[in-house]
What we know:
five-stranded antiparallel beta sheet, Type 1 dockerin domain, globular, alpha+beta, 13 strands, Immunoglobulin-like
Amino acid sequence: MLKNKLIFITIMLVFIALSGFGQNYSDALAKAIYFYECQQAGPLPSWNRVEWRGDATMQDGVLGGLYDAGDHVKFNLPMAYTATQLAWGAYEYGSNTELNNNIKFILDYLVACSGGSYVYQVGSGSNDHAWWGPVEVIHKETQAGNRPIYSASSGLSAVMAQSAAALALGNILFGNSTYLSTAQSLYNKANSDRSDGSYSAANGYYDSWSGPIDEIMWAAIWLYVATNNSSYLANAESLVSKLNRQGQSTDIEYKWGHCWDDSHYGAMVMLAKLTGKQEYIDFVHMHLDWWASGANGTTPKGLAWLDTWGSLRYASTAAFLAFVYSDWNGADSGKASTYLTWAKKQIDYCLGNNERNGSYVIGYGTNAPQHPHHRTAHGSWADSQSVPANHRHILYGALVGGPNQSGGYTDSIGDYQSNEVACDYNAGFVSCLLKLGNSSSGAFNPPAETRDDEFFVEAKINAQGNNFIEIKALCNNRSGWPARLIKNLGFRYFMDLSEIFNAGYGVNDLTIRTNYVEFPATITINQYSGDIYYLNVVFNDGTSIYPGGQSEFAGEVQVRVSAPNDTSFWDSSNDYSYSGLSTSSEVKTARIPVYDGNSLLFGTEPNGGTATTAPTSAPTTPPTNTTVPTSAPTAPPANTTAPTSPPANLGDVNNNGVIDIVDALLIAQYYVDLNPSNFDVSRADTNCNGSVDIVDALLIAQYYVNLISQFC
């Protein structure tokens, strides 16, 4: 009997893993929250976990906030919506330290943008989109390091009201009185103006298509929840009649989705819950029925498809509304059951139950996107989507735009419709995962990345003779952990001058001549040790060399060092830095080391000294002359809920060096008390919850078929 039960369990484990049921929602949630730390602007907080990000746009008129998508503009309308949606998810289904930190990071920025004149955008969409590079050096691409800042004291009702909604929710979650007072001030202004007349800089990117009424209504609802002041609720209800209509009908518009531009869908769900009035419930049914029937059409594997831009964003956010309504004790039970099934199907589609049997969440599951449209994650030093060929960084947790209506999708960096990521894309998705997953299961802390060489010299021999050597050297700044500037950047060409000294000459008899210097530099001859000297090339301002384009990422120097004209004793072959150089083309060489001042960044000196930071190590504090502050820590913050480190080789319970379905079978045997032999129970708790059960076997089955990439 036990044997039959065990066979059944094992078959079910494989079936469940292959079919996509039993997704690791908690893992997806932890990664989806982490994505927001990849988007942070300004001085990074101490709890930021992204090793390839550093402080950036430090010249902005208002510091902080989030970069919108794969670009570097701070658009407040979608940013405020993102904060509202994340906070709504936390309000409904609970939160954790990491999510709370990220929500407050946005809210603090919205407070900083508020005042007599409200800042609604920093950066220019057209200017920003014209350059493809990491955000840490974008100020080198802008006029005097200043990005445009857009503000107005009136005519910003939609963005002010969405900010008010976010801050009101922030007060509800965190009890922050500044959030509440700022929310009330913004709401009063938005409700008084009821105009988007000054909201112009985002045109073509985030136009306020729906107008401001939906956001004002939305803000009023959350201020009512925050204060219990019935005047807010009364105003919200009074605005229902002013909402846009569906085509030429008298119905409130219901054939779209809750999103950064239109909050009335979520507002009607909340009005239904707060008042229980049938008119609001009827609207919610009409809207969710439309979505559950496929919206504008269903892909072959069941995604309710709305629009070309961000198809997964719309479906996952509509799924959240379905969850919220269906979990309400006043919901129609029959419809609630339908909505719950449909909503879960949308999230499972995002995670891998789709036409391509692949995840649409970077770093999660099998066949996940590798080439998102995201400048900093790509890490180009050449202002090019094709350089490098593959992304240098994994944008863990980012939900890409998604497939077309036929379910077709191409993982291409150039496809900004289906393969860009955005803060608002992840917002509804995170909220759904709060419902489906376990928000207290621990933070995601990614493994350290294998780093490319960031600073190095490519060199060749331009010319040589009996009394001279001339080299061409390209000093590269291809930094990406994080991208950064080095003010005192330089390199050293090491020479053995014993033949000069043996001939009775000295260092003062040598001359230095430059044929070409791309960026001004100071070149001297210095003693290293004994007869070993070096040409010391120090750029007067090394920040001119940065990972920002073909002419920016490397500084060229052509330099000749000569003995007197009537001599013939020069011998380049014994020079340390000469070894390996070619006369035909530049080669990368570690024998011409690169420095920040006197601090070795790359290469090996004649005595064997190497740079103190190995390419694969976690980031350390940059040298004191670096103009970009230290990068984010890779260790989890002190207040994280991350579990203790799991044992090595977790999941390999039979200790054979691989994790496969046999390990799942052994855990299933253990679970039904068959006491399997050669079973290491210390490696069996794959979800790190303190016990061993059938869920641990299921996780191994999922790991075996590449639905998940790690345990715990």
